[in-house]
Design a protein that fits this description.
alpha/beta; Rossmann fold; 5 strands; about 40% helix; binds adenosine-5'-triphosphate; binds magnesium ion
């Protein structure tokens, strides 16, 4: 059995790690789709598909999880064809894990079983919260693995996201009051 899970992983955090660790024990293989693969260098999507690939692979390998495939998935802006697009890129899969209602609906319409995964500490293990902390100089490091910190340091990711966030259109990344 191969299971598919798709996320943007901007960045890959300890909530993602926990769910993938659990799934890797339950299934022969986990296919990890890196969503919106074409996006990078924006406040919502600061990291490239390749940088996200490194974050995920290094984190999993350091925990001796090796039964995974990483597949970058670009947006096609046509929901009715999106599942076929994923099928054309990813190794075949039997079951899909997603908490996203649109993803769930699209895969179910194509006959897949979709399981809504349990969320771990969603108040803090959230990409948006981590990006907010990065921008405001708060402690984001506690929410990701050591391997992710290393990748972000290597690519100078914090100065990248702060510089991009300097425009005033990103008011929803405000410091916590
Ligand atoms: P963003 O805030 O940027 O949307 P995110 O934390 O929701 O980031 P995504 O890349 O959107 O991360 O996540 C993809 C999938 O990862 C989600 O649909 C969900 O299944 C899983 N996931 C995200 N956060 C957690 C968490 N805290 N615990 C378990 N699974 C999670
Ligand atoms: Mg999300």
């Amino acid at each position: 059995m191969r299971a598919l899970i798709i996320g943007r992983f901007q960045p890959f955090h300890l909530g993602h790690l926990k769910i993938i660790e659990d799934l890797s024990k339950k299934h022969d293989y986990i296919i990890i789709g890196i969503g919106s693969a074409q996006e990078s260098h924006s406040v919502d999507n600061p990291f490239t598909a390749g940088e996200r690939h490194l974050m995920i692979a290094n984190s999993l390998e350091s925990r001796n999880i090796n039964n995974f495939y990483l597949v970058p998935i670009e947006d096609i802006y046509r929901n009715a064809l999106w599942v076929a697009h994923v099928e054309a890129i990813a190794p075949p899969f039997n079951v899909v894990y997603s908490a996203n209602p649109l993803t769930k609906r699209l895969f179910q319409e194509r006959g897949y079983d979709v399981i809504i995964p349990e969320m771990y500490r969603r108040d803090i293990y959230s990409g948006r919260e981590i990006r907010r902390r990065m921008i405001h100089g708060e402690n984001w490091e506690e929410l990701v693995s050591r391997e992710v910190i290393k990748v972000i340091e290597e690519i100078d990711g914090i100065s990248r996201i702060r510089e991009i966030a300097k425009g005033d259109e990103y008011n929803d990344y405000q410091p916590r009051k």
